[in-house]
């Protein structure tokens, strides 16, 4: 996930090779963007996800790694 001048953008890559890219709607802070990205991934997988987020060196990008899954 990364910040552009107008929005946060995300790419969600599944273990099966699927890819979902797009804008993270209606958010302004990194915490809101991470939560929205997690919700998108949960909707895509129909699972409840625990995601470990790590900030990039620039502060305007984040990498999330799914650490646990559970039935939704």
Structural account:
By secondary structure, this protein is an alpha+beta fold. It has one domain: Ubiquitin-like (UB roll). The chain is built from 1 helix and 5 strands; from the N terminus they run βββαββ. The protein has one helix spanning 30-45; strands at residues 2-3, 8-13, 19-24, 47-55, 62-71. The strands form 2 sheets. It has a 3-stranded antiparallel sheet with strand order 1-2-3. A two-stranded antiparallel sheet has the order 4-5. Strand 4 and strand 5 form a beta hairpin. The longest helix has 16 residues, at 30-45. The two termini are 23 Å apart. The model has no long low-confidence stretch (mean pLDDT 91).
Structure characteristics:
72 residues, alpha+beta, Ubiquitin-like (UB roll), three-stranded antiparallel β-sheet, globular
Which structural class best describes the helix and strand composition?
A: alpha+beta
User: Spans of 5+ residues with little confidence (pLDDT < 50)?
Assistant: none
| Sheet with most strands | 3 strands, antiparallel
Q: Helices and strands, in N-to-C order?
A: EEEHEE
Please tell me the total number of domains. 1
Task: Furnish the topology, listing elements before pairings.
Blueprint: E1 2-3, E2 8-13, E3 19-24, H1 30-45, E4 47-55, E5 62-71
Antiparallel strand pairs: 1-2, 2-3, 4-5
């Amino acid at each position: 996930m990364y910040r552009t001048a107008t929005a946060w953008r995300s790419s969600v890559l599944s273990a099966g090779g699927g890819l979902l890219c797009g804008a993270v709607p209606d958010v302004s802070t990194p915490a809101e963007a991470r939560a929205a990205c997690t919700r998108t991934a949960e909707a895509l997988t129909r699972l409840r996800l625990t995601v470990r987020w790590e900030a990039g060196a620039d502060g305007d990008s984040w990498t999330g790694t799914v650490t646990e899954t559970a039935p939704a």
